[in-house]
Design a protein that fits this description.
This protein has helices at 2-7, 54-58, 61-72, and strands at 11-13, 20-23, 29-33. By secondary structure, the chain is an alpha+beta fold.
């Protein structure tokens, strides 16, 4: 059913094991045959010739690029205290206190 929605095409599913079904481009099940004996399902799917959806055109490529970009992007700089010093590099032996400005 999701394949019919993401491609905006009618989907006819005919299988040996399981239900035979017809799903329209909006994802509504228009016909289904799931009796245990042999039979047929008569239907007429629409042959659409519209432009493909963005998912059909590009697939998972935008998601992969976004994931790679988030891994490769540079880290943001460390937060700074009021005196301009960064909080990195302060060990357990450093007794200076950090004062942060909150608004």
């Amino acid at each position: 059913m999701l394949r019919a929605i993401e491609t905006r095409r009618d989907l006819v599913r005919a299988v040996n094991q399981g239900p035979t079904s017809f799903v329209d481009a909006a994802g509504r099940v228009r016909g289904r045959y799931d009796l245990p004996m042999a039979g047929t399902l008569q239907t007429t799917p629409a042959l659409l010739s519209g432009p493909p959806t963005l998912y059909v055109r590009f697939g998972d490529a935008p998601l992969v690029l976004l994931a790679l970009g988030s891994v490769v992007s540079p880290r943001s700089p460390a937060p700074q205290n009021v005196d301009g010093a960064t909080s990195e590099g302060r060990g357990a032996g450093d007794v200076r206190s950090a004062i942060y400005v909150s608004r």
